[in-house]
Write a structure and sequence with these properties.
alpha+beta, Jelly Rolls, five-stranded antiparallel β-sheet, three-stranded antiparallel β-sheet, 27% helix, 13% strand, disordered N terminus, disordered C terminus, Phytyl_CoA_dOase-like, dioxygenase, Phytanoyl-CoA dioxygenase family protein, dioxygenase activity, oxidoreductase
């Protein structure tokens, strides 16, 4: 790329392309070409019966929740990384420069294999992270569906795409836990997915479910389910810190069912020991995520969105905010 035309980044992102910066920032974490190759410390893979229960709940309600899949100590350490980034004015999605954030979902493999097939994949740009502060002005993202494409969910209710959301601190109604409208109660599924979300479409407020989640556990939902993060409060004991990764079946290419400029140039990969994500690819993945969620970026980072846009365009090319936000 011609450096004369590259967007110029101001602090704190000026050093983002310097791998030594990230290594010095958290020297106990790792940056390696194969982030899933290492044996995970503190990992607790989900058992077969729990995985089957999660799969059945997904088919009926469009979402599931799991017990913890990592130790409390590991969750707390990774939450500390996100908190440190937020304190430095760095968007939490940059936590994905470290192996440990790609490894978080490894305990989910039995559930994902049950729903998507043993050879399930991910597209590297479909990642995000949040740090919702204990404040009455902070909130998660409002009611939305991740995708409107009917083919994202099979006729038998099994998804072709699953959004896995993992809290690193306890997510409660006081600090912006997730809420869902179960699929069985949503009259807009499957034929009216683009109907604008409003309480008039919920039929009954009682159908809404709060989904508190312990640090280190996981939630998952299909891309049709209406979901949102609640508003935080000053009564929260800690911020709501979480990350999310989209996974999909091998027969599903995300841009075929939900085109977005942000995914161009990214190849889907099997999520296993050979999953490749060298440092340069991580920067591109983070840049793609910023492009993918650019509308949310502008709202969530009112003082830093221009730098985040510039970073994204530097690594994936000019897109001028044209991608569809979520």
């Amino acid at each position: 790329m011609n450096t004369a035309t590259e967007p110029r980044l101001s602090a704190p992102l000026a050093q983002a392309a310097d791998e030594s910066f990230w290594r010095a920032l958290h020297p106990d974490l790792h940056i390696s070409p194969l982030p899933l190759a290492a044996k995970l410390a503190g990992a607790s893979p989900i058992s077969g019966p729990v995985a089957e229960r999660c799969a059945q709940r997904m088919i009926k309600d469009g979402y599931f929740d799991t017990p913890p899949i990592m130790s409390q100590a590991r969750a707390a350490r990774l939450a500390g990384v996100v908190g440190d980034l937020a304190a430095r004015g760095i968007a939490p999605v940059f936590a994905f420069v470290y192996d440990e954030f790609w490894q978080m979902a490894c305990g989910m493999s039995p559930v994902l294999a049950s729903l998507l097939g043993d050879d399930f994949q991910m597209t590297p740009s479909d990642i995000w992270a949040w740090h919702v502060t204990p404040s009455s002005t902070a909130a998660g993202w409002g009611p939305h569906r991740d995708m409107f494409a009917g083919e994202a969910v099979r006729e038998d209710g099994r998804p072709r795409v699953v959004n896995v959301w993992m809290p690193l601190t306890d997510a409660t109604p006081l600090n912006s836990c997730m809420y869902v409208l179960p699929m069985r109660h949503d009259r807009n599924i499957p034929g009216n997915l683009e109907e604008a979300p409003s309480f008039g479409n919920f039929m009954a407020i009682q159908n809404i479910r709060a989904v508190p989640a312990a640090a280190g556990s996981a939630l998952g939902w299909n891309t049709h389910v209406m979901h949102w993060g609640g508003r935080s409060t000053e009564w929260a004991e800690q911020p709501r810190i979480s990350v999310a990764i989209f996974f999909h079946s091998r027969d599903c290419r995300l841009n075929d069912i939900d085109y977005d400029r942000a995914r161009e140039g990214f190849a889907s990969q099997d999520f296993g020991h050979r999953f490749e994500m060298p440092f340069a690819s991580r920067l591109r993945a983070i840049a793609g995520a910023i492009c993918l969620y650019h509308q949310k970026v502008r709202i969530d980072f009112p003082h830093a969105w221009q730098d985040l846009y510039a970073f994204s365009e530097k690594y994936i090319g000019a897109w001028s905010g044209s991608a569809a936000g979520r």
